[in-house]
């Protein structure tokens, strides 16, 4: 099971993946290309400004307090915007799509494993779908057999934090960010035999400590091209309508499991994608792409 390779690309120069994990760290950092350097500079400027702004406030306070307060507010906004906007990359790289010359997309399923996982796997088998499950560590711990079944049935498993603190992960200190990532990695490793290399933040919000924490672990932050907002909506037509404008070869699509409507939504979206000629595949790590400084 551990050596099972999931191949959907004719590029035989690529090494097999192990549940989304590559042993080597090729392509793990964009810091060697122009976009990576630009991103590093933007990050340094934002963090530097965040440190300098309070000092400026102290200096300006006797003469121009409003200007000082304005600088502090601006520095906070420059930190908050890329934190709260999932695909904005000012503070570090976010994977937003994958390179392909084929009509194929990557379906990613968040928040499992849940009671409907086996039904989701059956649905995928019926429609010849391969997908990646971004699981919660606390659930993976409780359902190791289900995680293993995801893998044996040809899918990949990735990290979606341990407890999924969607309301607070974005403002968590470095220690909590690391423990959320590490605990989920341990849960997945228990089931899979190896830790994953892909991570998605709860609701996509990631503060400036997430990027270096992932980089130290050789992990990559996965965003998306299209999301259906099916965690808060249930009408399959409405969810599909939110995805279709962003649909293109190499798109990353986010849907969820564990909701009352999840199976219905998944089947509706999968059929619609297939009708448009798309295969649902898992990309190789080397295919994953970022968009520099995307707003
Ligand atoms: Zn989630």
What would you note in describing this structure?
There is one protein chain. By secondary structure, the chain is α/β, with parallel strands linked by helices. It has two domains: 34-84; 95-290, TIM Barrel, CATH 3.20.20. Helix content is 41%, strand content 13%. The chain has nine helices and ten strands. It has helices at residues 34-60, 65-84, 117-126, 137-142, 144-152, 174-192, 210-216, 236-243, 262-275; strands spanning 95-98, 104-112, 131-135, 156-159, 198-199, 220-221, 226-227, 252-256, 279-280, 288-290. Strands 2, 3, 4, 7, 8 and 9 form a six-stranded parallel β-sheet that branches. Strands 1-10 form a two-stranded antiparallel sheet. The protein starts with 33 loop residues before the first helix and ends in a 5-residue tail after the last strand. It binds zinc ion.
């Amino acid at each position: 099971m551990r050596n099972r390779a999931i191949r959907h690309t004719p590029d035989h120069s690529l090494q097999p993946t192990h549940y989304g994990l590559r042993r080597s760290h090729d392509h793990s950092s964009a810091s060697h290309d122009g976009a990576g350097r630009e991103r590093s500079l933007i990050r340094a400027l934002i963090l530097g400004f965040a440190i300098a702004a309070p000092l400026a406030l102290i200096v300006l306070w006797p003469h121009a307090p409003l200007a000082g307060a304005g600088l502090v507010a601006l520095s906070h906004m420059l930190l908050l915007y890329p934190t709260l906007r999932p695909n904005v990359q000012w503070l570090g790289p976010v994977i937003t799509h994958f390179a392909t010359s084929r009509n194929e997309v990557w379906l990613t399923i968040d928040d499992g494993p849940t009671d409907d996982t086996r039904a989701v796997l059956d649905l995928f088998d019926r429609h010849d779908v391969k997908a990646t499950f971004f699981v919660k560590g606390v659930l993976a711990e409780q359902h190791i057999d289900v995680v293993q079944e995801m893998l044996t049935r040809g899918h990949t498993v990735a990290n979606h934090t341990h407890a999924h603190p969607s309301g607070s992960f974005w403002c968590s200190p470095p220690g909590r960010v690391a423990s959320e990532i590490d605990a989920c990695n341990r849960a997945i490793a228990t089931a899979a035999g190896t830790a994953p290399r892909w991570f998605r933040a709860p609701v996509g919000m990631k503060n400036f400590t997430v990027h270096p924490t992932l980089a130290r672990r050789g992990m990559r932050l996965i965003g998306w091209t299209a999301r259906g907002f099916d965690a808060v909506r249930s009408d399959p037509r409405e969810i599909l309508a939110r995805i279709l404008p962003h649909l293109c070869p190499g798109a990353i699509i986010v849907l969820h499991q564990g909701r009352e409507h999840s199976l219905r939504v998944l089947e509706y979206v999968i059929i619609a994608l297939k009708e448009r000629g798309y295969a649902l595949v898992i990309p190789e790590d080397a295919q994953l792409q970022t968009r520099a400084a995307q707003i």
